[in-house]
Amino acid sequence: MTPKIPQPPKKQYKTVKIPYFKNENFIFFKKIDYNIKNRYKKISYIYEKYDENGMFIQEFFHRKQKPAVIIYRQNFISELQYWKNGKKHREWGPAVILLNRKHEVISEKWFIDDKKLKDADVDDKKLIISRRKKMYKVILKMFSNN
Question: Which of 20, 101, 110, 120 has its CA 20 to 30 A from that of 127?
Fold first, then answer.
């Protein structure tokens, strides 16, 4: 079960849905929930699934390699969430990132297919990422010397 994203009461914010891609039984949207008075904005990338008769089935958060949910509070980005097919998911980084006003990371939560990773698993992933970055730097240095 995924935790709910805190939002202002429904009566206080407005929603805009902008379709940007259609594929057979799927429509991809950029959804913006906003409240100008409270300086709150949530941008979500979703797709809606329909059956063969055009009846709505379900809505999923989804965006490849980029945050599917971006939350602004008081005119700064306060939260980034990575989703894949309706599940919190990010293979090589945290799926939920909370930021302060200076865009410094306050906390990270790592998920793969909506399952929260244990601290030991997170440490292993971070070690692999660190090694990959070092490897890329060596490769780039080799090519730049030629």
Answer: 101
40 burial level (CB within 10 Å; 0-12, 13-18, 19+) = buried
pLDDT digits (tens, 9 = 90+) for 21-79: 998 899 999 999 999 888 899 999 999 999 998 899 999 999 988 999 999 999 899 99
**DSSP assignment of 26-37:** EEEEEEEEEETT
Residue 89 CB partners (closer than 8 Å, separation 6+):
82, 83, 95, 111, 112, 113, 114
Give 71: exposed, middle or buried? Use CB within 10 Å, 0-12, 13-18, 19+: buried
Query: Strand 87-88 vs strand 96-99: parallel, antiparallel, or unpaired?
Result: unpaired
Say if CB 36 and CB 52 are below 8 A apart.
no
- Which residue type occupies 103? H
Beta carbons within 10 angstroms of residue 97's beta carbon: 19
In DSSP terms, 17 is beta-bridged to: 31
Burial of 45 from C-beta contacts in 10 A (0-12 / 13-18 / 19+): buried
The overall pTM is greater than 0.90: no
Q: Which residues face 18 on adjacent strands?
A: 30
